[in-house]
Amino acid sequence: MKTRVLSVIVSLAFCSATHAATYYVDAAHASADDANTGAEDSPWKTLGKAAASELKPGDVVIVKPGRYEEGVTIRHSGEADKLVTFRAEPARKASV
Prior knowledge:
- The protein is α/β, with parallel strands linked by helices.
- The chain is 24% helix and 17% strand.
- The protein has helices at 2-18, 47-52, and strands spanning 22-25, 60-63, 66-67, 85-88, 94-95.
- The strands form two sheets. It has a three-stranded parallel sheet with strand order 1-2-4, with no helix packed on it.
- β1 (22-25), α2 (47-52) and β2 form a beta-alpha-beta unit.
- The radius of gyration is 16 Å and the shape is globular.
- Residues 2-16 have low confidence and may be disordered.
């Protein structure tokens, strides 16, 4: 029984450590702010905030429609099989 419980704990710890996150940038959202968490209901206002955040391999940044007139330097990279992705949603509705 102890071995089974330990196996479950180790499995859960491994899964949570490798789970990719999804963040949102939405300049048009009423409560968008770079001090937010980047969650869908608490999006960042600028691409610069997303790019400067502690993004990890496999993370996705969803960029909502809008015009983002700013310079962006992405500070963290992914891995060959776990890219850091910036994706417009819906497609082609964000202008950078």
